[in-house]
TrEMBL record:
InterPro entries: CheY-like_superfamily (IPR011006), CusR-like (IPR006291), OmpR/PhoB-type_DNA-bd (IPR001867), Sig_transdc_resp-reg_receiver (IPR001789), WalR-like (IPR039420), WH-like_DNA-bd_sf (IPR036388). It holds the Pfam family Response_reg. GO terms for biological process: regulation of DNA-templated transcription. This is DNA-binding heavy metal response regulator. The lineage of its organism: Bacteria, Pseudomonadati, Pseudomonadota, Betaproteobacteria, Burkholderiales.
Amino acid sequence: MALRIMSILVIEDDPKTGDYLKKGLRESGYAVDLARTGTDGLHMALEHAYDLVVLDVMLPGIDGWEIMRTLRARRDLPVIFLTARDHVNDRIHGLELGADDYLVKPFSFIELVLRIRTLLRRGVVREAEVFEFADLKLDVLRRKVTRQGVEIVLTNKEFLLLHLLVKRQGEALSRTLIAAEVWDMNFDSDTNVVDVAIKRLRAKVDQPFDKKLVHTVRSIGYTFGEGA
């Protein structure tokens, strides 16, 4: 049985960029339609069963923000913003509207294809944007952590570590798993990089507060919750 060709809708008003994307994605094995206005793009996205949409923000007719709002209200399909708007607030806004990814122009075509493949492989899986547990709140998009309303300043790795613990709360996570997820590496069992990072995280997240949330699981690793 022949494999189904995945279909992509590109909504891009710049003629050169639109033609480049259409040609390149077709050569990468996808069926591609191109809309050059926001009005046409929204109509096509709602009328046809595309597997993914590549969406610009600044478009004639209807802008990308409005297209994203409408799609999320009526359809559930992967959307990648591809735009020259590179301010962090624009990225946050796009992701808050429900986009699955946000890539800034000028962009690497190879990177775009890899992101498209990742989204199509995993399907539409939206992770929570805000986690709340006990008196702790973790905002993924804004990279902000608070306890009892007090903001806690974390390094990038500390934030990633806490994010992993919180989203897997109640699970006993091994040091090997934590190292692979947070540092993207395998390490020798004698290496204490995870233990050192946990100690620093506890000093910020647990030590100033009565209720402790990060716990050691003997002979395994660590867990997040209200009890050991």
